[in-house]
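Quick question, first post here. What does this chain look like in 3D?
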Amino acid sequence: VQLQASGGGLVQAGGSVRLSCAASGRTFSSYTMGWFRQAPGKERELVAEIGSGGITNYADSVKGRFTISRDNDKNTVYLQMHSLKPEDTAIYYCHAKDLWDYWGQGTLVTVSS
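> Answer (accepted):
Ran it through. Tokens below.
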């Protein structure tokens, strides 16, 4: 499985950004897809994930602000981020899981105050 993330960039606090992650593979619909992030000097953490059945899970810090979704016809997972804060600044990584874990290359989101 190859994952290609896009959509990062520089945004002002309070703004919005949508990340996309396109996946290869013929069994995308069976993967649990997720977004992780890693801020400078911090460990990588789960931001949001969506199961094959559409059940979602969010980190407490992003609940109510971020929405994860998937389009199985396009083999793509999205992360819509609203009300961004400077502490959301991080490299965001796309993740796929079936029997194994797969990671994308990461996309940088920088939120300026």
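The mean pLDDT is 96.
The chain is about 0% helix and 55% strand.
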